[in-house]
Specification:
Number of strands: 5
Shape: globular
CATH topology of the largest domain: Rossmann fold
CATH superfamily of the largest domain: P-loop containing nucleotide triphosphate hydrolases
Order of helices and strands: EHEHHHHEEHHHEH
Strand order of the largest sheet: 2-3-1-4-5
CATH architecture of the largest domain: 3-Layer(aba) Sandwich
Number of domains: 2
Length: 212
């Protein structure tokens, strides 16, 4: 971790990841409440493809008007249906999105400051991004609970929800890269003590966390 006054780029980063509907956003919000700067790749992506942005225009040009909502914004459901299960289209989408997300994330990290930074990266395992972070924090829960939450949250058909889970990295693969694990298989109130304990640990380990 950087000493006081060190450039923002030298502040250590903790990568927060987890499967869909595992509780990443809830955990990130608890860290933010403790004063930790949080940079969320999903939020960055949404900003980059907001209505009228050059990146959204590139998506329309490549994938067609079928992913354009009536108000000119991105129809995320239509895009997901288009690329889901099609490795070629998915890779093309990633080649457009990932470099832009990474560049914007770096810009935000340079000015975010903080005792350390929490970077929410849902596809950390899939993109082999572990080495970008001083530590990897996993929000973990059983896949059956992910499915239950996903169905309740997004109102998907069970077959679509199961396919989305199957398309992600396995629970075992995420656990294999994790330095720290928050278990989210109960009430939301159970998360706060786990976050508080890790926050103290990250602060105590500040001097030994390798800055990225």
């Amino acid at each position: 971790m950087s000493a006081p006054g060190a450039p923002p780029s030298r502040i250590a980063r903790v990568g927060l990841t987890g499967g869909i509907a595992s509780g990443k956003s809830a955990v990130a919000a608890l860290f933010a409440a403790l004063g930790v700067p949080v940079i969320d790749a999903d939020i960055v992506a949404r900003e980059l493809v907001a209505r009228g942005t050059p990146l959204l225009a590139s998506l329309f040009e490549r994938f067609g008007v079928g992913i354009r909502a009536p108000d000119g914004s991105l129809d995320r459901s239509a895009l997901r249906r288009l690329v889901f299960g099609n490795d070629t289209l998915r890779r093309e989408l990633e080649s457009l999105l990932h470099p832009a997300i990474r560049a914007r994330t770096e810009q935000l990290a340079m000015v975010a400051g903080g005792p350390y930074q929490l970077h929410v990266v849902p596809l950390l395992v899939e993109t082999n991004a572990k080495l970008r972070f001083a530590r990897v924090l996993l929000v973990d829960c059983p896949q059956s609970l992910q499915l239950e939450r996903l169905l309740a949250r997004d109102h998907l058909a069970p077959t679509e929800a199961r396919a989305m889970l199957a398309a992600q990295a396995s629970r075992a693969a995420r656990l294999a890269v994790a330095d720290d694990v928050i278990v989210n298989d109960g009430a939301l109130d159970d998360l706060a003590p786990q976050v508080a304990a890790l926050h103290v640990r990250y602060l105590e380990l500040a001097a030994s966390l390798s800055p990225i």
